[in-house]
Amino acid sequence: MSSERLAGKVAIVTGAASGFGRGIATKFAQEGAKVIVADLSEDAGKQVASELGGVFIRTDVTQKADWEAALALAIKEYGQLDIVVNNAGASYSNKATENVTEKEFDMCMNVNVKSIYMSTQVVVPYLLKENRPGNFIQIASTAGIRPRGGLAWYSASKGAAITVTKALASEYGPKQIRFNAVSPVVGVTGMTNLFLGSTDISTFVATVPLGRPSTPADIANACCYLASDEAAFITGVNLEVDGGRCV
């Protein structure tokens, strides 16, 4: 039975049409939140929103106008916005760094880092103007903590996401706006083959003490806790949801 830990809260979840984002959106809805499903994939996004009783908006997270539209939709539909989950992410295929194209570099930095900039540029002024507490959660990665060869620029983008989360937490804590990050270990998602260069994750899973990859439910549970009032005194944290991988 749901405990309704997010009752009365409104959340934007980016990349919510699939994978970790869908898991997060589903958990939030189960816990009583109203969810804005923000994604580039219209058909899948609309389906998720319909299932959750939320609303969908096509969103390019690198574009300020799209963030402004998502905020406007939240206010129009639900009268407020409380939570932003920056889940949408991008990577390139695991390969030698000298073979990474400028386009691939830009994609990682724009989707994984610029999106955080854009969300704060739009949503923080709204929270300050309304004198509302707020809650940002970035989905980072264990690659931002323990980088390895083949994904240098992806790892750098996730390291940046973790660092800026801490900086923003310090800056906006006095305004009661919390910023936290969640760092999953590799899971079985649409991006798994990019991270590993293969769909076979057995070798990587062997490095995880708890012996399995992460799941959308694992990440959703962590995000739900950080978004809830149970975590009211937690900000600037990067929560590793990794089965002990980063120990």
UniProtKB/TrEMBL annotation:
<dbReference type="Pfam" id="PF13561">
    <property type="entry name" value="adh_short_C2"/>
</dbReference>
<dbReference type="InterPro" id="IPR002347">
    <property type="entry name" value="SDR_fam"/>
</dbReference>
<keyword id="KW-0560">Oxidoreductase</keyword>
<keyword id="KW-0521">NADP</keyword>
<dbReference type="InterPro" id="IPR020904">
    <property type="entry name" value="Sc_DH/Rdtase_CS"/>
</dbReference>
<dbReference type="GO" id="GO:0016491">
    <property type="term" value="F:oxidoreductase activity"/>
</dbReference>
<protein>
    <submittedName>
        <fullName>Uncharacterized protein</fullName>
    </submittedName>
</protein>
<dbReference type="InterPro" id="IPR036291">
    <property type="entry name" value="NAD(P)-bd_dom_sf"/>
</dbReference>
